[in-house]
Design brief:
The complex is a heterodimer. Chain A is of the alpha+beta class. Chain A contains 6 helices and 5 strands, in the order E-E-H-E-E-E-H-H-H-H-H. Chain B has 3 domains: 7-224, Aldehyde oxidase/xanthine dehydrogenase, molybdopterin binding domain (Aldehyde Oxidoreductase, domain 4); 231-299 and 354-444, Aldehyde oxidase/xanthine dehydrogenase, molybdopterin binding domain (Aldehyde Oxidoreductase, domain 4, 2-Layer Sandwich); 318-351 and 449-780, Aldehyde Oxidoreductase, domain 4 (2-Layer Sandwich), CATH 3.30.365. A 7-stranded mixed sheet of chain B has the order 9-10-7-17-14-15-16, with helices on both faces. Chain B has a 5-stranded mixed sheet with strand order 12-22-19-18-13, sandwiched between helices. In chain B, a hairpin with a 2-residue loop joins strand 20 (528-529) and strand 21 (532-533). In chain B, helix 12 (380-391) runs parallel beside helix 13 and helix 16 (563-580) packs parallel to helix 20. The chains are: A alpha+beta, B alpha+beta.
């Protein structure tokens, strides 16, 4: 165990954990955040995604020590139910969920990609999401929501 | 029946920081009749698995079990049908708001908590609408409450009921609008003390203002912003973390466990072994992960598995069997011998898995004689009794609270992981959260059944079907645990409980009543029993015979269980018959369908797709490059529980064997539409999930163990695939019964794709999934 300083959604937290602990467990157990989720624990599905230095990364396979002191953004960090981020709002407007377990990975992956590629084409967005799963297959709505947001950003 | 609160309910309120009196005062929620007697006990024996009546359940025949009007006039509704992501909580809220003339946002719905909500069995099987929107359950209780409120208002206002109307919780005299009274004034904070009246008048769909509208789901803003509490997010004071250690091979048993192998792991609390159930508990999740990985368990050799490559032959030849005859006109062989043409084909469907996005999770707090369990189970009352059995507790001392897991699509790891958490918590006497690993989930869940299906039919000289024989073989092991079978899922079995025994039966007895809830009876036959036709088709010479055999893997309901596999075979075969008769597949279906709703679904899908009437395959077949085709398939789900037809347009890349579905047209009829956007979401998701199942999903194994244990080895289409355009035609039937809606589109899509492949290329693929290799093989061997 060792004390590690984590910067999450603009706040600094000190946690006393094994430095090899996957970031996901620290976020969900020690900080009790609900955005990042355990989907596979193997970096295959995207449910645990967080944004670090503008990159969408898989927190289930990221040792917590490796992101010490770096700004980490989770789904909670984008917006709140009262003041959702534009991308979250687009998902709300499109009712783009069934169970909603995957949306963390979908929204954060799309966000990180569009931040860097605001003029991305439909196909490029699709390609960026090729490692993200939704088992309810709410794909058509999610695609609409992302494109709606992309258009708003490009404007 | 005297109103009283159970100790569980009191405890639940205490945990929530309320005394019962506070709770009544502040929310007006009524705790009623949680003891079991009289009508509720009768209910328990009269109802099937979808509508239980467990001892201790609020009696379903009492209005107060379903509806409470608070001291502030707001409405709380209690339901035994839960939100799994299918949108039913929104639809149920609309239902209560509609029947009680309340605004949508002043109705609060509480579902699936054994301290509060009536036992309605499991939330599954496309039964939530039939159970609560037709003549029973939540809708009927709300209608009874409304009639009672109107009678009370008539007395208080001195006007006849016929001169009253209600809006937003206020009842007004129509002839003198200055006279009005609120629900709060009439009953706020008090009980109805009323039996649910089966004759209470329901609001006709023509008068709906809340139902029938695309009300937005109230959980979605929290989901999108990371605020929503899944079961994975439940945190109790002093909670520990558990992981399980499953056998390395199928049938392996524990010989010994070397606890010294994990000594020294920081935070380790306990290694738990109960027969073949092995788990670890630690203070932190990461410690539990490491302990589970390092724990040395000596397992016996497994029992071995039949060869994957020959599995379908193994299934077909396996003995003993349990046989079921759904229909038998006893003249099929004779009619086939008289037919101008006899067509035969065999279809194969693999085991598939629920493959939930999140590996399952549960939190249990077992302290002495009492347990509180947070579970993603589909049936809290089933879980309460079966967990009590597993733990050796009294059911009344077990409190099960539903918390949403990730989408389950049937019997995923939800019940299993709940038992895991309960066993580990009992062993340490503290709350324990168990998170299954991806492999725990995928290697041991109750898979959707594999099927071998033979279809035979005879055509007369004019190309009419004169006889149809459907015969299937399917392996089973375990099932939903129900009230008393924890051994129907892996962790209960490992802990020493037996699964439901396999009971051979051959030959099958003659059917005494018509049932098609497995869709084993093709849509095109008459379904005649005792001279009465109850099927959806015209073919009078018919037989549908099913054989169940023992499965080496756990099986259980996966979205559209058996219905999907049977429909895949029948709808592909119908296309084969149409091709043999050189008839247009839509016209050929209509020629053999008698059911007006199923016919309408077929015609509506065809119209939306601008169907070009002609036989399949397309004229001037291209043998290379990209070929384009269209296919149709339809189903009357369970014979009469929802109607859907789908037309698919697909490209077949003949060089690579890749299928690219471009457009999907879904016509769906689920009776009166309670929420059109929710219905669309189910149809779209069902079609695409079914497409993923059709194109890539298959459980695989070697000679000892399952090998499809993660997303690299079990192939779900990710978000990045070229998503087809999905167009839905919603067929609203205001005057019909509400039916299921969540399982129809998924049932027909595989056949529609298979038929499109045939249309494009002339190659018929009779085995799921339609992998590129399988497509290429079919292309290379086509006529």
């Amino acid at each position: 165990m060792s004390a590690i300083a984590l910067k999450v959604n603009g706040r600094t937290h000190s946690v006393d954990v094994d430095p090899a602990t996957p970031l996901l467990y620290v976020l969900s157990d020690d900080l009790e955040l609900r955005g990042p989720k355990f989907g596979c624990g193997l970096g295959q599905c995207g449910a645990c995604t967080v944004i670090v230095k503008g990159q969408a990364i898989r927190s289930c396979v990221t040792p917590v020590k490796s992101v010490e002191g770096v700004e980490i953004t989770t789904l909670e960090g984008l917006g709140t139910p009262d003041k959702p981020h534009l991308l979250q709002q687009a998902f709300i407007d499109e009712q783009a969920a069934q169970c909603g377990f995957c949306v963390n990975g979908v929204i954060l992956t799309a966000k990180a990609f569009l931040d860097k590629n605001p003029k991305a084409s439909e196909q490029e967005i699709q390609q960026a999401l090729s490692g993200v799963l939704c088992r309810c297959f709410t794909h058509t709505r999610m695609q609409r929501a992302i494109e709606r947001y992309a258009k708003e950003v490009a404007r | 029946m005297k109103a009283k609160m159970t100790s569980d309910a009191r405890a639940a309120l205490r945990r929530a920081g309320f005394s019962r009196r506070d709770f009544l005062k502040t929310s007006g929620v009524l705790m009623v009749g949680f003891s079991m007697a009289g009508p509720a006990a009768e209910h328990a024996s009269a109802q099937g698995m979808f509508e239980g009546g467990a001892p201790g359940s609020p009696p379903p025949n009492q209005v107060d079990s379903w509806i409470a009007i608070a001291a502030d006039g707001s409405v709380t509704a209690y339901s035994g049908k839960e939100e799994l992501g299918q949108g039913i909580s929104t639809a149920q809220t609309q239902l209560v708001a509609e029947e009680l003339s309340m605004p949508f946002d002043r109705v609060k719905l509480i579902y699936c908590d054994t301290a509060f909500t009536p036992d309605q069995g499991v939330t599954s099987g496309s039964q939530s609408h039939p159970a609560n929107f037709n003549h029973k359950g939540l809708g009927q209780a709300a209608a009874t409450a409304r009639e009672a409120l109107f009678k009370m208002a008539a007395d208080r206002l001195g006007a006849p009921v016929s001169d009253l109307s209600a809006t937003d919780g206020v009842i007004t005299v129509k002839s003198d609008p200055s006279k009005s009274i609120t629900y709060r004034q009439l009953i706020g904070g008090k009980k109805f003390n009323l039996t649910v009246d089966a004759k209470a008048k329901r609001k006709p769909a023509s008068e709906w203002t809340v139902l029938g509208t695309p009300a937005k789901r109230s959980d979605i803003p929290a989901l999108m912003t990371g605020q929503f509490e899944f079961v994975h997010n439940v945190r109790l004071p002093g909670m520990l973390h558990g992981r399980v250690v499953r056998p390395p091979t199928v049938g392996a048993t524990v010989l010994s466990v070397d606890e010294s192998s994990v000594h020294g792991i920081p935070g380790l609390v306990k290694v738990v072994v109960k027969k073949n159930f092995v788990g670890v508990v630690a203070e932190k999740q990461w410690q539990a992960v490491q302990a589970a990985e390092k724990l040395k368990v000596d397992w016996s050799a497994g029992t071995g598995l039949p060869k994957h490559a020959d599995f379908y032959e193994h299934v077909r030849n396996q003995k003993p069997t349990r046989d079921t005859l759904l229909v038998d006109s006893k003249d099929v062989e004779q009619k086939l011998s008289e037919a101008a043409t006899v067509v035969k084909a065999t279809y194969h469907h693999p085991y598939q898995m629920h493959g939930s996005m999140g590996a399952s999770c549960a939190v249990a707090d077992v302290q002495g004689e009492k347990a509180t369990i947070y579970s993603p189970t589909q049936g809290v009352w089933h879980q309460r009794s079966s967990a009590a059995m597993l733990l050796g507790l009294k059911p009344e001392n077990v409190h099960v609270i539903f918390r949403r897991g990730s989408g389950c699509y049937g019997l995923n790891g939800a019940d299993t992981v709940t038992y895991d958490a309960a066993l580990l918590s009992q062993a340490v006497g503290k709350p324990v959260r168990v998170q299954l690993t991806r492999k725990d989930e995928m290697a041991w869940e109750n898979y959707g059944n594999a099927y071998v299906i033979d279809e035979r039919a005879g055509l007369d000289a004019q190309g009419n079907i004169i006889a149809w024989d459907h015969e299937s073989w399917s392996p089973t092991l375990g099932n939903r645990p129900g009230y008393a079978r924890p051994g129907n899922v892996i962790s209960g079995f490992l802990a020493g409980f037996d699964p439901e025994p396999f009971t051979p039966r051959t030959p099958a007895p003659d059917p005494r009543a018509y049932t098609n809830n497995s869709n084993g009876v093709p849509s095109y036959v008459a379904g005649r029993i005792d001279g009465v036709s109850k099927g959806t088709g015209t073919v009078k010479s018919e037989r549908a015979l099913l054989h169940n055999v023992e499965s080496p893997f756990w099986t259980g309901p996966l979205r559209s269980p058996a219905r999907l596999q049977n429909t895949f075979a029948q709808e592909c075969f119908m296309d084969e018959l149409a091709a043999r008769a050189q008839a247009d597949p839509v016209a050929f279906r209509l020629r053999h369908l008698s059911d007006p709703r199923l016919r309408d679904a077929v015609q509506s899908a065809a119209k939306a797709a601008k169907w070009d009437a002609r036989p399949s395959p397309v004229a001037n077949l291209r043998k290379t490059g990209v070929a384009t085709g269209r296919g149709i398939a339809c189903v009357a789900y369970e014979g009469d529980n929802g109607y859907t037809a789908i037309v698919v347009e697909a490209d077949v890349h003949q060089d690579t064997g890749k299928i690219n579905v471009k457009r999907i047209f879904v016509a769906i009829d689920a009776g009166p539409i309670s929420n059109p956007d929710g219905l669309k979401n189910q149809a779209e998701g069902g079609a695409l999930q079914g497409m993923s199942r059709a194109l890539g999903e298959e459980v695989t194994w070697d000679d000892q163990k399952v090998t499809s244990v993660d997303w690299a080895t079990f192939h779900s289409l990710p978000l990045g695939f070229a998503i087809p355009k999905v167009e839905c035609v919603l067929l609203n039937r205001p005057d019909e019964e509400a039916t299921g809606a969540g399982e129809t589109a998924i049932t027909v899509i595989a056949a529609a794709i298979g038929n499109a492949i045939f249309d494009a290329t002339g190659a018929r693929i009779r085995q799921i999934p339609f992998t590129p290799e399988r497509v290429k093989t079919a292309l290379s061997t086509r006529a």
